[in-house]
């Protein structure tokens, strides 16, 4: 479906640029949510329904709500923005450029249209059942280790938020 | 045969869309009548016989009111908020199976907007997006009370989504599929005693219905629009039909929540003795007509279940007082989530022992 692909790609790039270029942080967050939707659209084109739904639920539905939550409270605007030093800007540009190099390097050897055969392609690939089998058979250890990592992050958040002895009750 | 099937499916989608709107419209009327009944009043009875034209009168009133933009409001997002609330509310009914299938000659029409194998995740995803309409509207109003309402809505929805998702996981462990149609069909098997999921998942159902009340912002969890503390909550600054869209979206959410509960826990379009009735009708009418009659009775059954749940939502609203905000959070995080985890363990254990499947 090339027309749909190009449309989704256009919207994805447009909204991703909007995230960076928008003056208002709330607009940035809304553009980021739109970006997640277009990414889910790409997942659907790649026959990964489960990934598409989970992307919406986790990123658009939960994480971005918390982002929006915090940004609405902060009431950021151009007047209150702290001045950033030139060193920080250069460091950000170098880090972003390095990330681009890594991504291009990862995709450099991909030859479109030659990695799969349309006649032997398994239509169930990307469906939730297949994904579950792969996660729980081939990648069981990394999967479980990732969940331990989440647990560590949760414990850390609780430790940071916990009231220490002698601290006043609000 | 590809195009006629698509044509039929488009018709089904249009009908589902229309029914969602119609039910939301008449939910406003039902709310007033039920409130009147519970408070021993007469209720709306001026517009038309028994007041059944009241929703139309309300709509005319809302459309003709002045459209007001508060000073300092973000105009684009102020309009976008209610639109988003309405769109996300209407999206969820697309995957709900309202009936089995109708057969005309060789054409089989499934009475469901779209059949996807991630149906349950789709509903869950759309429900989790519903809060954006409230948040954006509340923030764009440039009003402290609206912002507080929006923030309350966000934290409440996120807190209760967790318990709701875990209640769903227990259902999923039994069904082994995310498709709402498959889950419905599994709840009834010809020729044997087969119970609806409510019998196997009583704890899960209670968790789910409590979370549904919180997700739809209905009393006793309507903290985002708590008028004793926040004037009108997130829609304080709204007037005219933008206000109407917010109110309307809430009723559509109630309808969708009722439909999801009927499908997941109360057998959806199944009703008792449907296979016996089908076999009896098949003797005189033929197999195809018998199946069609059963399907139509199934649609009636699912709507009876949905209306019962909508009535329950309204009954609770006019019976229970509103929670305090800290009580709401404590209920969500320290009672419902541990209970949901316990329910998952219990379901897993019972499946392992072969008590339920």
TrEMBL record, chain A:
Species annotation: Hymenobacter cavernae
Keyword NAD on entry: yes
TM spans (from-to): 46-74, 86-107, 139-160
Membrane topology (UniProt): Multi-pass membrane protein
Known function: NDH-1 shuttles electrons from NADH, via FMN and iron-sulfur (Fe-S) centers, to quinones in the respiratory chain. Couples the redox reaction to proton translocation (for every two electrons transferred, four hydrogen ions are translocated across the cytoplasmic membrane), and thus conserves the redox energy in a proton gradient.
EC number: 7.1.1.-
Catalytic reactions of this protein: a quinone + NADH + 5 H(+)(in) = a quinol + NAD(+) + 4 H(+)(out)
UniProt gene name: nuoJ
Family matches, as InterPro entries: NADH_UbQ/plastoQ_OxRdtase_su6, Nuo/plastoQ_OxRdtase_6_NuoJ
Keywords: Cell membrane, Membrane, NAD, Quinone, Transmembrane, Transmembrane helix
Name of the protein in question: NADH-quinone oxidoreductase subunit J
Coiled-coil zones: none
Family of the protein in this entry: Belongs to the complex I subunit 6 family.
Subcellular location: Cell membrane
TrEMBL record, chain B:
Compartments, record wording: Cell membrane; Membrane
InterPro entries with a match to the protein in the record: NADH_UbQ_OxRdtase_su1/FPO, NADH_UbQ_OxRdtase_su1_CS
Enzyme category, top tier: translocase
Transmembrane parts of this sequence: 6-29, 77-99, 119-141, 162-181, 251-273, 293-316, 328-356
Record keywords: Cell membrane, Membrane, NAD, Quinone, Translocase, Transmembrane, Transmembrane helix, Ubiquinone
Major localisation: membrane
Record's catalysed reaction(s): a quinone + NADH + 5 H(+)(in) = a quinol + NAD(+) + 4 H(+)(out)
Membrane-protein topology: Multi-pass membrane protein
Subunit (UniProt): NDH-1 is composed of 14 different subunits. Subunits NuoA, H, J, K, L, M, N constitute the membrane sector of the complex.
HAMAP family documented for this protein: NDH1_NuoH
Family, similarity comment: Belongs to the complex I subunit 1 family.
Protein name, per record: NADH-quinone oxidoreductase subunit H
């Amino acid at each position: 479906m090339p027309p749909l692909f190009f449309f989704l790609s256009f919207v994805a790039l447009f909204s991703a640029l909007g995230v960076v270029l928008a003056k208002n942080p709330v607009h940035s967050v809304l553009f980021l949510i739109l970006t997640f939707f277009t990414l889910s659209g790409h997942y659907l084109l790649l026959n990964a329904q489960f990934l598409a739904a989970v992307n919406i639920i986790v990123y658009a539905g939960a994480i971005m709500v918390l982002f929006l939550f915090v940004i609405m409270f902060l009431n950021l605007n151009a007047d209150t923005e702290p001045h950033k030093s030139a060193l920080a800007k250069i460091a950000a540009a170098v880090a972003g450029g390095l990330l681009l190099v890594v991504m291009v390097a990862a995709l450099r050897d991909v030859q479109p249209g030659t990695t799969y055969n349309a006649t032997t392609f398994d239509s169930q690939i990307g469906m939730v059942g297949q994904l579950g089998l792969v996660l729980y058979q081939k990648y069981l250890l990394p999967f479980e280790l990732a969940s331990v990592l989440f647990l560590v992050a949760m414990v850390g958040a609780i430790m940071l938020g916990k009231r220490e002895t002698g601290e006043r009750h609000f | 045969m590809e195009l006629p099937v698509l044509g039929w499916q488009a018709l089904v989608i249009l009908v589902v869309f229309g029914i969602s709107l119609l039910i939301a419209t008449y939910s406003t009327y039902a709310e007033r009548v039920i409130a009147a009944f519970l408070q021993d009043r007469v209720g709306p009875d001026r517009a038309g016989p028994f007041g059944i034209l009241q929703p139309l009168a309300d709509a005319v009133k809302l459309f003709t009111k002045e459209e007001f933009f508060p000073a300092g409001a973000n105009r684009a997002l102020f309009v976008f908020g209610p639109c988003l609330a309405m769109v996300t509310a209407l999206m969820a009914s697309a995957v709900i199976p309202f009936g089995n299938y109708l057969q005309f000659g060789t054409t089989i029409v499934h009475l469901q907007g779209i059949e996807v194998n991630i149906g349950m995740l789709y509903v869950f995803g759309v429900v989790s997006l519903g809060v954006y309409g409230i948040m954006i509207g509340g923030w764009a109003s440039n009003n402290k009370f609206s912002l507080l309402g929006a923030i309350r809505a966000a934290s409440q929805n996120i807190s209760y989504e967790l318990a709701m998702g875990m209640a769903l996981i227990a259902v999923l462990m039994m069904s082994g599929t995310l498709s709402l149609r498959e889950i419905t069909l599994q709840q009834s098997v010809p020729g044997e005693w087969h119970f609806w999921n409510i019998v196997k998942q009583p704890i899960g159902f209670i968790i789910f219905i409590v979370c549904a009340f919180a997700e739809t912002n209905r009393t006793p969890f309507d903290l985002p629009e708590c008028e004793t503390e926040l004037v009108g909550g997130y829609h304080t600054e709204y007037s005219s039909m933008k206000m109407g869209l917010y109110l309307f979206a809430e009723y559509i959410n109630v309808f969708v929540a009722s439909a999801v509960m009927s499908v997941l826990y109360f057998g959806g379009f199944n009703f008792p003795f449907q296979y016996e009735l089908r076999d009896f009708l098949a003797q005189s009418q033929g197999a195809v007509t018998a199946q069609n009659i059963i399907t139509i009775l199934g649609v009636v059954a699912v709507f009876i279940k949905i209306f019962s749940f909508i009535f329950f939502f309204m009954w609770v609203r006019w019976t229970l007082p509103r929670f305090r905000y800290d009580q709401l959070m404590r209920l969500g995080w320290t009672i419902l989530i541990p209970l949901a985890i316990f329910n998952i363990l219990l379901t897993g254990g019972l499946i392992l022992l072969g008590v339920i499947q």
